[in-house]
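User: Second chain of the day. Same drill as before.
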Amino acid sequence: MPTDRRNVRHNGGDDARPRSRRIVTGKGTTMPRWLREDITRVTRKDRLEETLYLLDSGTEAFADGRYRKAYAVLSKTKELSPRADAVRELLALSAYRAGMWKEALAELRTFRRLTGDTTHMPIEMDVLRALRRGDDVRKVWAEFLELGGRPETVKEAKVVYGSFLIDEHDLQGAWKVVNPKKLTSTPFEEDLRQWFVAARTAALLGDRETALRLIRAIDSHDPSMPGLEELRSSVSSGRD
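Assistant: Same format as last time:
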């Protein structure tokens, strides 16, 4: 497992979620029309009803935080509709949340191959980090820089790769990746995560002033961020 999971993007909450058109709907809601249409398009007619039923059950389990259950159900769904990228996506995220690293990696890569979507490449890097496959983390980072992604995905990738470089004791490299340059007055969650890793890096580099400035900026927007108080204490006391 990666060292110090606070420094990566996916430490709980809603970060490991399906891409822009959210799949997980929760109990008592109807499956989105777009999702039903996507599944219908790639699923044999004689398998469609069971596929939709299992997908609904799997998304409900995921929404409830029962990730191993979701993975088990969605694995059956995949057998019925192997070309459904929405199924592959949610299956990958279920495996990731359950700490099933090898299974998550296989499904993440299948999802990316089916769609060309780079949204979950930060998770892919985090899984490789968990598997201690450092060379592959670097390869995926280089590939992501070439392919690009939405602004929020770029920030999440920086969080994961910066945390990886901290693990590798490449603090200068980590700082180049996560340095936010400027602090916006209306940050998104991914900005705050980047600031956190930047603060941690600055502290490790011995730059207490920069670390405390970043910590104060995070505190003004999300004082309950996991690990923030511990980081503040370590920086204030001159240790890390």
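Residues 1-7, 9-15 have pLDDT under 50 and may be disordered.

User: Great, on to the next one.
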